Request: fold
Amino acid sequence: MKIYKFNRLTLSIATMLLVCSFLASSAQAPKHEYKPEGYKIVTVETPKDVRFHVTGLDSDKYGVIWVATRLGEVWYLKNNSWSKFAEGLHEPTGLLVDEDGSILVAQKPELTRLIDNNKDGLADSYIPVANQWTFHDNYHEFTFGPVKDKQGNLYGTLNLSHNNPDAFTMGAMGTAGGYRGFAFKVDTQGTYSPFAYGLRSPAGLGSSPKGEIFFTDNQGDWVPTSKMHLLKQDKFYGHPVSLIEIDGFTQESVKALSLDTLSAMSEKPVVWIPHVEVANSPGNPEWNTTKGKFGPFEGQIFIGDQTQSNVFRVLLDEVNGQYQGAVINFMNKFQSGNIRAEFDIHGQLWIGQTARGWGAQGGKPFGLEKVVWDGTNPFELLDIKLTKSGFKLSFTEALNPESVTANSFSAQSWHYHYSSNYGSPKVDLTPLTINKVTLSEDHKTIYVQMPLASDRVIQIDFPGLRDVKGRSVSVEKVYYTLNKLRE
Reply:
């Protein structure tokens, strides 16, 4: 097969050619619409005649919305009016409003602080914060972040390259060195350090209310389906090529590692995200800390997906001191590819969008939308927790007891195959028997008993359930990543 090298002028065309065959199978025809009652999507007007590919998104304490665009600009929305703050950046894919009001932007070669010294609404200073990684002018070498922990340390992630002839590869993606495939940390003194490795295309970073750092990674080689991890120092997250920069490893020794060895070295994800059914290319985890302004889903994680043009929820569960949990779809039919999510002070969920050339279910190439809640309490699965004999499912409204039977449920389980292949099918797909269901006294919680096994994804369907008003849920299946059984 002939290998072509593309320059910047043909970059977008090259990107489309590289992925078109993959998109043909993964970006399927639009699904049926699903959304909780009381929620709607509002399209936000963006600056006229500006290719407003939103790849960085944050809001400040005054409710001002800040945006970084893929084409190198920073804008802010204040009093329903857009203003340009900065320009000339190199394909930024992350933005953070710092406590002092300065703007941190992750662009390909650098993490940069933007400061408006004379308070005229324009950035005067572009100050390098970190640039100790290497950028090889490869289109796929994105820099994501930053996010901040409770101590004030900053974190970012560095994408692997694609189609770089100088890169070390063991699949579709590679590294030519300089910490590609790493997460990094910049401490409060400004010191940069590599933090973790084995990342592939970690397009989303988020900081929990506790200050823990989570990230999503996109399905591909060595990533059987998209996933979300808790970021831990000096841990390996599965893609082997970045090991060549770890002491004791060489290209030859990395290539010689068996699948079993690499799998044993790898951190387990908090959740696996089923491909196409939920997401193909997830963005940043965003915590709902709106204190009820966004409805009943307080404390939960919301993530947008670039390919499926949807938003899904992550329901964390702490089992034996470790995080695992579930994913469930929330809303779809957005106008473009959802890559960034942000809750503002009013409890609105803003969604930054770009198709970039990869394509998305939503037909528009870029945009900005927000999800707003009108106060109606929907009937939906609220949460799921593992028990010793099955699962505890909580709902937002009281259920009709007549609908709560074993026949209202079905379940199945599977796992994924870890390898250099581009993704994995569901392996050992097995139906599960629902042994017993029990409804709580307040009729809002169902205990489901079923056989359990670790290192499986458990899908539970509940289409037969109805609330006391006769409503059915808009999303009738949930996917739980069962890493460990409850002791």
In short: The two ends are 53 Å apart (CA to CA). Helices lie at 11-26, 251-256, 259-265. Confidence is low (pLDDT under 50) at residues 1-27. The chain is about 5% helix and 40% strand.
